[in-house]
Amino acid sequence: MSREHQICKRCVMDTTDTEIVFDENGFCNHCTNAFKKLNSYPLNLSKAEKEKELQKIVADVKESGKKNDYDCVVGVSGGVDSSYVLYLVKKQLGLRPLAFHLDNEWDTELSVKNIEKIIKKLDVKLHTMHVDWDEFKELQLSFLKSSTPDLEIPTDHALYATLYNVASEYKLKYIISGANIITENISVPTWSHGHYDWRYIKIMQKKFGTRKLTSFPHLSMYNLASQQLFRRKKIIRILNYVPEYDKKKIISFLEKEFGWQNYITKHAESIYTFFVQAYILPTKFNYDKRKMHLSDLICSGQITRNEALDTLKKPLFTESELHEMIGLVCNKFGITKKEFDTFMRLPNKSYYDYPSYETHPIYRIIREVYKKVNPQT
What we know:
By secondary structure, this protein is of the alpha/beta class.
């Protein structure tokens, strides 16, 4: 028996998340938990306390890298958060960042230009890693054939792995991340799961691919624990310490200061990420991740619920634009439109339909240790 559609009365999350729970007021578990996080450390600190904590972090970063050319690495995508973080650490905090970009062959022209503008004006070195496209393409196709919604895991996992690798290569202890509680609070495990799960990735490729992964950047659960426990690598979500991180103000600042240009929606700096979130997930799985992103902004007081509802009514592309995008993706993957349509019609699966680290006997122990070592992740 299908569940009657219900939407949260406070945010815009709804029963397209099949595990959503509503209280007696009609408020969902997502925004309830979001408010708890927004009132937890370090966001619950006063402006003066945040500044004190931030200066302590800066001092630690500077001390750790005083013998190196750089003292931290910052991943950049050309998006709002990472662009602002690079400015923040270089100009406001006086750090010596190495910018890092993972080129997975799906960057939009706009994202490339945005990165170039930021890097040039800040005078920061950019270290770019290019994936082995033939191998990476087949892994992305394996996930598409698996019929799970976890289609962006190859990119996300490779980014995590390469950030740690670059930090090790340059003998850097700190990775400064643009991820933050303010605008990226809500997550839905059934909509995407297994980002750190190398076992899951390997099995997907073995089951649906034709070649063994040889150059794909990865982190096993042992590698991840080693990076945190023995190599002492730390991820700092620096935006959580900024007194007021207002998305609209930051976008306006980036446009004025760097000639940076905004995207049609969150994560649209990547052609494939945009295609997955704007077409595949809503069409095949009935998931619209804009509901998460907009609900985050509602909870942090940056937009109203009515503004979010109006945004959700607007299509992200016309029929002709959609046709063009499907053609572009199929051509890049080397598949026909008929093959793509076949993948879209496959019975939907989830992370839990395949072997993963979560079925490994010691996974939970290692994961709990990891969380204690790096509680911001």
